[in-house]
Every structure is written in structure tokens, then in C-alpha cells.
Amino acid sequence: MRRNITGWYSERLYRDMPLVAYGHWGTPILALPTAAADFLEYERFGLIDSVRPWLEHGKAKMYSVNSVNKQALLNDRASAQEKCDWLNRYDGYITEEVLPLIRQDCGGGDVKPMIFGISLGAYLAANLFFRHPERFSGAILLSGSYDIRNFLHGYNGMDVYFNNPVDFLPHLHSPELQRGDKRIIIFTGQGPHEDAARSRQLSDILHSKGIPHWLDVWGHDVGHDWPWWRKCVPYYFETLFGK
């Protein structure tokens, strides 16, 4: 299986931003890491190995990048406005730097990857997907929270609104999402450290907007941890791409 690390200095983020690609062919999937982790997190925790058959046989191709969570939502020294500024810069990094690289790596043309994230990465993935549905073919959102106001010390300006899916989605008019040709998977467990209400909240908003999606709620033994994510991701890959 191809494993290729590249990267560049992002003027938007004032730092080197590495990226790893797994596989040669297939549907491209852009993966955003959890919490304060890095671009190799999914490899270290065995998630890449869990979907290796699809990557090796040309059914899917994954790209994994760093986040700015340390500078943004997890930065206790930053103001709410600074946190939102980092989120906006990250939005530009993904849409104007990473997506062009993926298109080029996939042979050019109008390539639209799926976007994937777990935990805080699921928030980032949802925020990007619903802000730019025309740039992605779908989203796989695992164990996420889609309301960031608890990170922002009560601040509630317009820059929060446009980075908070539970705020802007109820007012979003998107025939592109309502057509139903984008695959949206929302996963949650109901066990330790999971909060299924967060995923149900996002699902309820999408239902109210007529946006097709799959809310997949697993059992009360299913916790917020890697063994369950390594189990559910191959299940979704088989659903999306076949055996």
C-alpha cells in the first residue's frame, strides 16, 4: 500500500503542515485528527490498518492532515475571537491548499473527497462539510459534538455562528444537500464518555431541513474509544465501497 508523506509551509497558518496519503486509487477521503493529535494519529491507533483492504484494492484512498486545535478550541490562553480566527484560517487551509492537492493527486478534474473525523475531528469535518457542501461528496462523522460554545467563554458573535453547525444549519438553504446524493454518516455510541444527544441534535436539524443522512446509534457498551472506532469504520467502508 502506498504511504506518502508530503507537506508545505502554510502562509495562512504560519507553520509547516504535513500530510500523509494512503493508497493509490479509489474514492478520496480527507481525515481530520481528534483533539490535539497530529496527521499520523489514525495510523498510530490502528485505524488505517483496519481499512487496509479497501486502500490496497483501490476502493478508497485516505489523506490525513494536522489540525489547529491546539491553537484554537483547546487553547485556554486564546480569546474566543482568536479561536474563531484560527478556525477560519483552517477552513482556508483545507479548501484552498489541501483540496487542490487532493484533486491533483487524483488526476485532476472535479474531484470531491469525502471528509472524515472523530471526536473534535468530527466537529471540524462537519463544519467544513456543511460550510462547503459543493466541495465534498460526503461526510463520516464519529462521536462528535457539533456545538462549540462551551469552548468560547460565553462569547456568541457572528464568527461563532458561522463556525457552529447547530447555529448555522437551521438557517441553511442548500438544494445540493437536499438532493441526497451526498453520503452523510453520523455515528455515536451510548457508553462511557459518549453523548448520543449531540449526534441526535445534529440529526434532528438535518431532518428538519430535508437533508438525507444516516444516524447510526450503537449500544450502551459502545464507548468513546479507539476499539469501537476501529470496529465501526470498516463497517462503513464496506457499506460505502463494498467488500
Structural notes for this entry:
This protein is α/β, with parallel strands linked by helices and 243 residues long. The protein has one domain (3-241): Rossmann fold, CATH 3.40.50.1820. 38% of the residues lie in helices and 20% in strands. The chain has ten helices and eight strands. The protein has an eight-stranded mixed β-sheet, sandwiched between helices. The longest helix has 26 residues, at 80-105. It starts with a strand and ends with a helix. 42% of the residues are buried.
| Amount of beta strand | 15-25%
Number of domains in the coordinates?
1
DSSP summary: helix tally: 10
Distance, first to last CA: 17 Å
CATH class: Alpha Beta
Q: Give me the strand/helix succession.
A: EEEHHHEHEHEHHHEHEH
Q: Quote the average pLDDT.
A: 96
- What is the approximate shape? globular
Descriptive tags:
8-stranded mixed β-sheet; alpha/beta; 10 helices; Rossmann fold; 243 residues
Summary of the model, kept short:
38% of the residues lie in helices and 20% in strands.
Write the layout of secondary structure elements.
Layout: E1 3-10, E2 15-22, E3 27-32, H1 41-44, H2 47-50, H3 52-56, E4 60-65, H4 80-105, E5 114-118, H5 120-131, E6 138-142, H6 158-161, H7 165-168, H8 175-178, E7 183-188, H9 196-208, E8 214-217, H10 226-241
